[in-house]
Amino acid sequence: MNLRRLLLIVLLIFQTILLYGQTLTVPTPEQVCFGEQGSIQATMSSGPGNNRRYRFDLYLNSSRVDRITTGSRTVTFSNLQVGTYSISVYRVNNGGNNPSFVDSENNIVLNNETESPIFQNPQSDISVNASDNICGAIVSYVYPVASDNCSARTGAITGYTSLGTLNGHTYYYSNSAVNVTTASNNSTNLGGHLVTINTQAENDWINSKVGEVWIGYNDAVSEGNFVWVTGENSSYENWNGGEPNNSGGEDYTVMYANGSWNDLRGTNNRRYVVEFQTATLSQTAGLPSGSLFPIGTTTNTFLATDNSGNTSTHSFDVIVTDNTAPAIASLKAEYYNGRSFNTLMETLNVSELNYNWGSGAPESNLVGTDDFSIRFQGNVKAPQTGTYTFYTTSDDGVRLWVDNNLIINNWTDHGPTVNTGTFNLLAGEATPIQLEYYERGGGAVIKLEWSGPGLTREFLTDSGGGSCNDITLDLSATGSAIISADDIDPGYTDACGIASRVLSKTNFTCSDFGDNAVTLTVTDVNSNVSSCDVNVKVIGAPDNSLSVVGDTKCDNEDAIVIIRDSELGVSYALYLGVTQIGSSVNGTGSDLNIAVLAADLPVGNNSITVKASKGACELDLLNHAMIVINPKPSPVGIFHE
Description:
Elements: H1 3-20, E1 24-25, E2 38-44, E3 52-60, E4 63-70, E5 74-80, E6 83-93, E7 100-110, E8 118-119, E9 126-129, E10 137-139, E11 146-147, E12 160-166, E13 169-174, H2 180-189, E14 193-194, H3 200-207, E15 213-218, E16 227-228, E17 252-255, E18 261-264, E19 271-276, E20 279-285, E21 291-293, E22 296-306, E23 311-321, E24 327-328, E25 332-337, E26 343-349, E27 354-358, E28 372-381, E29 386-395, E30 398-402, E31 405-410, E32 417-425, E33 430-439, E34 444-452, E35 455-459, E36 471-474, E37 480-482, H4 485-488, E38 492-493, E39 498-503, E40 507-509, E41 514-524, E42 529-539, E43 548-549, E44 551-554, E45 559-563, E46 571-576, E47 579-586, E48 592-596, E49 604-614, E50 617-620, E51 625-630
Parallel strand pairs: 9-23, 15-19, 36-42, 44-51
Antiparallel strand pairs: 1-2, 2-5, 3-4, 3-6, 6-7, 8-11, 10-21, 12-13, 13-19, 14-19, 15-16, 15-17, 17-18, 20-22, 22-23, 24-38, 25-26, 25-28, 27-34, 28-33, 29-32, 29-34, 30-31, 30-33, 34-35, 37-40, 39-41, 41-42, 43-45, 45-48, 46-47, 46-49, 49-50, 49-51
């Protein structure tokens, strides 16, 4: 074998080793954010050699989707959709011909990103005491904010015009007008949602770039309760005058070209704005910030969802404790959003029920100038017993209950109107009243006046509800009486409700004659306790504390029992043991002498019980009379037989 042939053989062996020793390496591709496209990088272990090139063929589900022929050993396939790919590598000549297989890689998976959003400002548990006048507390908290590893969608979208970026969110304006269902579905399919607007600045920014458009605000589920399609919370609204009015079943919202909002039927066609954000936040449990939280623990849970559908949750508790004991009612006003007492916003004290707000806001700054309602509650105390007239002046609806009886009912829209009703009241008794009022729009007026025996017409003012009052029981006709908490309670109330009212003593008989200390204990549903002490004076029974004086006599002599300061209208009888001795004698208003016949008195000490009777009451006097009967002495002298 000559040298030339030997060198050729060595060269072929070297080329074979070089060819078959080359390997393909494909790193795991980076995950793809929703709405974006991915890439795959492939690298050969060495170059293709002189006068040779590599041909990289990329396959998706067995179909070739790309080919790169290069003299480099590394290539990158870009603009790829999610899926499972394979790559085959060939060596070709500089013209791309005469391919010879080198290596391949299968099951190259390009995935959507799977990293969950991260909450940037986790909220700690909140513990507060309940407000004095409401069963709960209005609690505000900072809404959690979530971020994601993927940015909001950018770049061109067919059929849409980019409006730009605001606060990290991107916005696209549709080129065509569609109904609201199509607009919402298109937005979701793109990985966004119909635009949600939380501030005046955001409203102005969008309005400066578009005409009339659908926005993601509707009351399709519950009429009058508008919510954002994302479930996010926002107190911002920008309704046009007189809107929303639900004319003909209007459940969806458009932004006018002037930036104000109007409710509209969803079948209308309008252009729309799609909003993209790194993560959408919705509250899945609990109550929005600024709500009235009830007594106990309310768990608030927020769900963050990124554009790829990855989620994370964050929860915290709002714990409201009721430490307020029941109190004697005074005149209060509960202010509600909505004309049907929809959402309690605040409870305020009322000094005089005389309000004319015109077109302005009422005392509470938590309700607007229109579409609110108020419930006034308190007590009235009549100076004299008799019939009283109540006068309401209202714009708009009004209802008045006195002692739970509806006496005025004009629950309609109207201008300033006076209505009257009458009710019989007892002097000095705290009688509950409840006045309900709503304001739709325009002027707002609510006044309550009253007049009656001993009272010229005047506005109702806070009477303070009164106090626990002593009571007197006359038992002369019945001999006994039972009282209840209603006889003592001057009007204890509690925002959460009264659980029980208990008297320390309820049953009274003639033996309770005089003063009796009684305690009323009022317990609310959360075990807070208030109490007051009263005196229950029992009359109509004879005074059993009178003094009596006995006598000392010899056998067979009549005796006398003296009752000091006997009472008129009381009959007195004397008893020796269980046997009456002598006849009953009526009191004179002064000392009373009662004779006792000698035949009724044995020799010795006789304890005499005095029974006093008045009407249905009969009592033994506490003091007894002692009549001492001495035996007559035997004769003493000298006797002769």
